[in-house]
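Sample intake sheet
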Amino acid sequence: MIGSVTPIERKGEGNAAGAILGGIVGGVLGHQVGGGRGRDAATVAGAVGGALVGNELSRGGATVSHWEVRVRFDDGTNQMIRFDQEPPWRVGDKVRVDGGRIVPSN
């Protein structure tokens, strides 16, 4: 029987190019603000902020999803099976595992 169906999501991976480009743009924009030590502080803050934003944007905001389906057997044991696409199974469905695949129970 299906014991649980759990969607798993995590953020995509960022890359250094996005952080570097964001840092450069942020630093240039920050350098346009104020004068003297204020300009230096704005440049550093712009570079750091730009790097953070650039890294986040390079992730594309996308998530990588998979689903973990826990099958509970009559003897009380469980087996977790991972799906890359949303599975058709719902909690309580009567199933069996055949060769690592979930199939309807007869």
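Comment: The first helix runs from residue 16 to 31. The first strand starts at residue 2 and ends at 11.
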